Input
Amino acid sequence: MSGKIYLLQDDGQLHSMTERSYVNEERLQVLLRDYPDLLAGDQIDEEEPRRWLLISREVGVPFEEDGREWMSLDHLFLDQDGVPTLVEVKRSSDTRLRREVVGQMLDYASHAVAYWSVERLRTRFETVCDTRSESPDDLVGHLIESEPSDTSAIDDFWARVDTNLKAGRIRLIFLADEIPSELRRIVEFLNTYTSPVEVLAVEVRQYVGENLKALVPHVIGQTVQAMGRKPGARTPKRKWDEQSFFQELDRREGVGAVTVAQHILEWARARVTRVWWGEGKRNGSFVPILTHKDVDHQLFAVWTGGGLEVYFYWYQYKQPFDSEEKRRELLRRLNAIEAVSIPEDAINRRPSIPLDVLKENNRLDRVLEVFEWVITEIEAT
Output
């Protein structure tokens, strides 16, 4: 491997970063587990970038119906349309990446379509979530842009997974630090002629320098013919705006919830960088976003289902609320407000406060005061 990229910092300093191999395959595996965006969903589908939900690493594939799991897939993801995405990870130095891994992946795919059940996958996912003290409904809800409490939307998502599996609508991805030319040709051929299966390779090059690392993904296999069809029946996208959001909120929850949400929106427009309107098929939302030092901080979401969803789950990945102590302080401040009761274990989840409880006794003003404090803490970093 060779080559450089250059990082231009705000102070005008230009730093060179040199391409480096990964220490071992496990390092690349762990990076993908922790950062699914390395699958470059925006390159796979520019119009509707793919978002990813990791079901598990080392997923067993049975040899027969209800049989033992005799093969082990590196990673299994689902995208927002419930398309199972099977990922095999290899380093370029592994000679199996040339041809052997293709046969291995097709073996996995053929048995997975034949013998995986959606119940099996859902149980595996929920078990993994339990070991990490995560809520499976929270994660699915975020993926499909729905409230975790909307069980019908979550069940519909798993039903789409089932439909896709039975129809053979799956995606196969070979991921490596460098994709050899032999594999590139095979991937392009398969992706052109194996409808409804999508076959891709993702090259993730690593550059190191100045105590920084840059990971640069590139999708391979999207020939002109292959891009004419994509796996899965897409869920129709709906872009919400202020008018459609409040019409739906009024229909579902009534004028009281509308008044509260309008007050929140007015506050947000005066205090944050921008307000993002959701794209959920059934559920509308808006999210106030504060940009500080080029980092977007999503403060919370307000939903047409009548809830203000506190983004503890996402706070934990950005300063200063990556500190558990800070998140607990936020929890205490919110729970000090009459009629607000968020569980102690919610500091890693996405709990909701019903809009209805904020209509009385200046409760909404007190909630917004808490988020004024959140903004102050973010801007102090």
The CA atoms of residues 38 and 217 lie 6 Å apart. The first helix runs from residue 25 to 34.
